[in-house]
Design goal:
Largest interface: A-B, 46 and 46 residues
Number of helices of chain A: 3
Shape of chain A: globular
CATH class of chain A: Alpha Beta
Order of helices and strands of chain A: HHEEHEEEE
Strand content of chain A: 35-45%
Structural class of chain A: alpha+beta
Radius of gyration of chain A: 15 Å
Strand order of the largest sheet of chain A: 2-1-6-5-4-3
Oligomer: homodimer
């Protein structure tokens, strides 16, 4: 692990989450690749344009101030590839309170970390996936 | 990107998926870290023991032969950190046919790639997350 790179990735994710809370659409996209792959809650999204549009729905019909706060953020960073995991409590959107899991994949390009992948999910509510082990 | 490392990670994930189809419990765990973090469909799991037990439920009450087949596998590998994404069609378990999304995070330790993170999810069926953009 490279401590400096880990710190840079951590700061990038915290900055991105703060941009979401601030409804700063440019800030949300600032460190993202043109061809990123996002596994969103309901669908798979490829490219910065479709990624940007997922935030239209996210910010529509808010129930209150948006809060999007990561916790348990863990970063694994090499010299030029990194991934990160965290849990996020999201409040204020039309969906109500959402507890989600996020995995982020990043590459360093021209000494700048860039997000090339995001995997957002909520724990499933479908009974077919709930065994006694859970 | 490092082509050789990318190939090694790709082969690891294909080997792991084949072990699932073969119900080879030792093979499923062979390349996994003792303290891996798994975002499973319904819950968060930490450690190889709890990870192993998630497969008890997976393999219980099968409806037919298990098939667990990745497609659109994309690997981003540096010298010692990598992540991978794929879509998986899973057949034969008690849950019926499942189309899932998988992100895998890996570190290279003593020249061996080790899975330290898996994020499994199914597209949500909750209407609160389905906007016109999807």
């Amino acid at each position: 692990m490279m401590a400096t790179e880990e710190t840079r990735v951590r700061q990038l994710i915290e900055r991105w989450a703060a941009a979401i809370s601030a409804q700063d659409r440019a800030g949300i996209l600032a460190d993202h690749s043109d061809d990123l792959l996002m596994f969103d809650f309901p669908s798979t999204v490829r490219g910065i344009g479709p990624y940007d549009r997922t935030w239209d729905f996210f910010f529509a019909d808010p129930k209150g101030p948006i809060r999007f706060v990561p916790r348990e953020l863990e970063v694994t960073a090499g010299a030029d590839v990194a991934f990160a995991t965290c849990l996020i409590r999201c409040e204020g959107t039309s969906a109500g309170v959402v507890e989600l899991r996020l995995t982020t994949g990043l590459c360093k390009i021209d000494d700048k970390w860039v997000v090339t992948h995001e995997h957002h999910s909520v724990p499933t509510v479908e009974s077919r996936f709930k065994g006694p082990a859970h």
